[in-house]
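User: Show me sequence and structure for the first protein, then do the same for the second.

Assistant: Starting with the first protein.
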Amino acid sequence: MLTISQVQARSLLNKSKIFDYCLNPFLGCQHACRYCYAALFMRRYSGHSEPWGEFVDIKVNAPELLRQQLPRARRGTIWIASVCDPYQPVELKYQLTRKCLKEIIPRQFPVFIQTKSDLVVRDLDLLIELKELEVGFSIATDSDKIAALFEPGAPSISRRIKALEKIKAMKIKTFIFIGPLLPLNPASLIKHISGLADKVFIDRLNYGEQFLKFYLQHGLEKFYQESYFQNTGQELEALARENKIEAEKLF
C-alpha cells in the first residue's frame, strides 16, 4: 500500500557534494530498491514509519519554488535527482519533473538526469531544448530477474535499454551508472549498451553489512564478496573501453 502525501517544500534547488545543485521533486521512491542509500536516512528525515518504497511525498510547490530560486542562483549543473527517482510512477500524474524542466529551459542551466524509468522519454520534447544535458539510466545488472529482485518497483532492464536507444537517437549525451554491482554478466551488459551510452560509471555496494542478510536469503552471497566487486568492476571498465565507451570506476 502506497502512502502519498502532498507537501510544501521550503527549498528545491539545493547544494550538492557531487554536482553544483540537486533537485528532488519527491521525497521517497516507489522503486523500492533494496540497496538504496537514501533508505538509510530518508525515513528518519521525513518522519515516515512506512517501509522504504511505500511512501512518497509530492512537493506540489516544486515548480513555483524553482521559478523563485533560479534567478538568484549562480549558474551550475543541476542533478535530477539525488535521493529519489524523478520519473517514478507518481510523476506520470503529477508531472513535477516535467514542470521543473520547463522552468530550467529559459535559464539554460546544465542538467544531469539519472533515472531507472523509461518514462523519461515522455519529456524528449523538452530535453532537446536544453543545450547542456546528460541523460542516463542506473543499470546495475544485465538480468531482468535480478533487477526485479533488487529493484521491485522499477521498470525492467530491457525497458531501460529501449528508452536509452530512443534518447541516443535524439543525439542527447547519455550515460549508464552501473552501481551497485549486482549479480551480472559484464560482457552481456556492455553488449546491451554498446553504441547507446557515451559513458559508464561503475560503483560497488558501499553500504555495509545491512544488505548481507538479503543476499544470504537468496543464495547470492558470492556476489557480496570484495573479490566479486573488484574483478567485475575491472572487467566492466576494460570491456567498456574496448567498445569505445568512456569508463570511470568509482572505487
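Switching to the second protein now.
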Amino acid sequence: MSRVHILATGGTIAGAAASQVDAGYTSGGVGVEKLIDAVPGLRGIAQLTGEQFAQVGGQDMNDRLWLKLAARVNALFAADKADGIVITHGTDTAEETGFFLHLVVKSNRPVVLTGAMRPSTSLSADGPLNLFNAVAVAADPEARGRGVIVAINNDLHSARDVTKSNTTDVQTFVSLGPGLLGTANYGSLRYFRYPTHPHTMESEFAVVGQEQLPRVDILYAHANMPPDLVRASASLGTRGIVIAGMGNGNVSTEAASELAKAVKAGLIVVRSTRVVSGDVGRNIEMDDDRLGLVAADHHNPQKSRVLLQLCIFKGMDPRAVQKAFHRY
C-alpha cells in the first residue's frame, strides 16, 4: 500500500460542539489520532502515519505556518517518507493554503487538503468521509502530477481554481470556470483533467529556509470608497496591495489616482474583483498601462494576495508580476 502521511492543522474537521445539533463549536480540539480512528476502513487503504502539525481554526492560519508547512511537506518528500500527504485544514482559508503549496511544493507526489463544514461531534458530520476520500487520493499514483488537490464533499478541485462559496453549506467549494479535477465516491476516484497552469515542479517559486513573506494587503472596493484607505495601507508598511474591485476590478477615480501614487512610491498593486467569478482583464475599463497596475486575470483577491507575496519575495517588477499572473 502507498504511504500516506497526515498533517493535521485543526479546523472544523477537528472541532467539537456541546451537542450533536449545536451550531456553535470550537475548532481544532480533536487530535490527529482520533480523526484517523473515527474513519472506518481508513487504515485499510494506505500505510498511515499522523502528525499534529498545528491546532488552529482556518481563520488563524498565517504566513509563518504556511512556510513551516511547505518546509515539512518538501522535507517528507525529499526524504522519501511518504508517497502522498493529506493536510486537514479549516475551510475558511483552505483555498489560500492550497494555492500557496501548489506554487512552492517541489514534488509531483500528491498533496491533498481536506476539511469539513460540520464539527466532528455533529449529527451527520462530513469530516470522516472527506478524510477517507482524501487519503484515497493521496495514495493513488494517478493523482501524481496534478498539483495540490482539495478533496471535499466527493469533489476534487485544483487548489488554483477552488473557492469557498457558502458560509454553512457542505457543498461550499466550487471551481467556477475551469471545473472539477475529478470526483471521489467512497474512495473510488475519477479524474477529468490536469491543472491548466504551471505548479509545483514547474513553478519558479521557492521558499526554502524563509521565515516570513512580504506583507500584502487586500482592500475591498465599494461605492464612495475613500482613497485614504490606500494611504493607510502604504503607511503601515505593506509591500503590495490587492484590490477586491467592483465589476471587472474597478475602483473610483479618486482611489485609482491614489493607487497610481502608491505604485510610484514602489508598491505593486493588483486589481482583482469582489465578484464571485470571471477574469479581470488588463486595460478594459481602467488604464493599467498609465496607472502602473496589474490585472489579476482569473485569481480572486485571496489567491491574488498569495501570488503577489511570492512575486514580491522573488523581486519581480510590475511587468514581471503581470506575466506571472497570466502564467500561474
